[in-house]
Write a structure and sequence with these properties.
The chain is of the alpha/beta class. Helices cover about 55% and strands about 5% of the residues.
Length: about 400
């Protein structure tokens, strides 16, 4: 694709990056076939190719409008288009750059500003989110069924093994997950304990993804730096990896090195953090591969049943980890049920379900129909956002896959 970005913009890191991304696009349109919003709305401007044109025109000097903002807001950032693209167009980065530029030139309505500020003031802060969730749980009995299902039931986290192994890994605690599903990281700790690895949690916070995707870049970078400061002492003391049990956070942390590359105080550390970050599935699969069929030698507590696995977009398209969890579930005896269109987004997409509720609900209904078609006993996933979103639309239990492994090993 030919570009004519201004000389001033090309002098900036974002301008140069955007120009390089745009020049890779060959207009083939393969991306539209795997775009959830294009499938729903049928509008070229609600597909990746159309959005690329909108960003290109804007960066070349055309005046964007509220319509431009609407089409970019409707993007889930699922990055299925990146998986499909034969030219390797980094659409997700281009969208981040375009949205950030758009935020400076097209004002939002008072309602939009209020909703975004409210999200940024509550969700990334663990204690605030926990307090809000506690209140919602107290009022759960007064809510209509549809709203009641959106409030996760409080569950005991389970035991966290003592640190007793020479091998140590860090784990992201994060913001929403400790309150909504505290058992996930504890389950990961039990599984890794079986594999001879101690999992350590430090006082970190939000990975920065919410602020980043809402174009609050300064706040996002503050959160990234805070986490790096929290993790760095353990890394210097020999922690092998930074484990992430929420694939959405994992995709964000993998980009720390890119997002902080121009920060003289943190560029090196951020790049190292990105190198050390691992989704929990990568570590379990690697350790089992190195240690033989250790998982198979551990008796299961009960006969597992049928499970439908939803692979989050951040796992399969963001982290490029496809087909890694399913064999782990099968090795514990779970029977995987078929899931049609497994590459499509469930509609959670971070804050998307709150900011674009109509499209999000349609995508959730489609995804649940696909997941429940095989009559599974349980639905499993790998991201807290997807877990909560899917659970709000079904009576079937929805759990993180690592919890199912930990249960089987109990």
């Amino acid at each position: 694709m030919q570009t004519r970005l201004s000389a001033a913009l090309l002098e900036t890191p974002d301008g140069r990056e955007a120009d390089g991304i745009l020049r890779k696009c060959v207009h083939c349109g393969f991306c539209t076939a795997t775009c959830p919003t294009y499938q729903l709305l049928g509008d070229e401007l609600d597909g990746p190719r159309g959005r690329i044109y909108l960003i290109k025109e804007m960066l070349e000097g055309a005046e964007p409008s509220r319509a431009t903002q609407l089409h970019l807001d409707r993007c889930l950032t699922c990055r299925a288009c990146e998986t499909t693209c034969p030219s390797g167009v980094a659409y997700g980065r281009l969208l981040d750059i375009g949205r950030h530029h758009l935020e400076q030139v097209v004002p939002r309505t008072a309602g939009e500003r209020l909703s975004r500020r409210a999200l940024l003031a509550v969700v990334p802060y663990r204690k605030r989110f926990a307090a809000l969730l506690t209140l919602a749980r107290a009022l759960r009995g007064l809510m209509p069924p549809s709203l009641r299902r959106a409030v996760p039931v409080a569950r005991a986290p389970g035991t966290w093994p003592a640190s007793s192994h020479a091998r140590r890994m860090l784990v992201l605690t994060g913001c929403a997950q400790p309150a909504a599903a505290p058992g996930i990281n504890a389950a990961a700790a039990r599984v890794l304990d079986r594999l001879g690895i101690s999992l350590l949690a430090v006082e970190d916070g939000c990975c920065g993804a919410l602020a980043h995707h809402l174009s609050a870049e300064d706040r996002s970078r503050e959160q990234m730096r805070r986490n790096i400061d929290a993790w760095w002492p353990q890394i210097e003391q020999g922690a092998e990896a930074l484990i992430v049990t929420a694939s959405g956070c994992g995709a964000m942390i993998r980009d720390y090195g890119t997002l902080l590359r121009d920060d003289p105080g943190y560029a090196h550390k951020a790049a190292r953090i990105s190198e050390l970050s691992r989704d929990i599935s990568q570590v379990v699969a690697q350790e089992l591969g190195q240690s033989g069929s250790r998982l198979g030698t551990v008796p299961t507590r009960r006969a597992p049943g049928r499970v439908a696995f939803h692979s989050p977009c951040t796992l399969q398209h963001g982290l490029k980890l496809r087909g890694i969890v399913e064999p782990l579930l099968e090795r514990t005896g779970w029977i995987l049920t078929p899931v049609a269109d497994g590459h499509l987004c469930c509609g959670s997409a971070g804050s998307y379900s709150l900011l674009q509720p109509a499209i999000s609900r349609q995508l959730k209904s489609r995804k649940l129909a696909a997941l429940e078609a095989g009559t599974p006993d349980v639905i499993a996933t790998a991201n807290i956002g997807c877990l909560m979103h899917l659970a709000s639309g079904t009576e079937r239990p929805v759990r993180h896959w690592i919890e199912l492994l930990a249960d089987a090993w109990a």
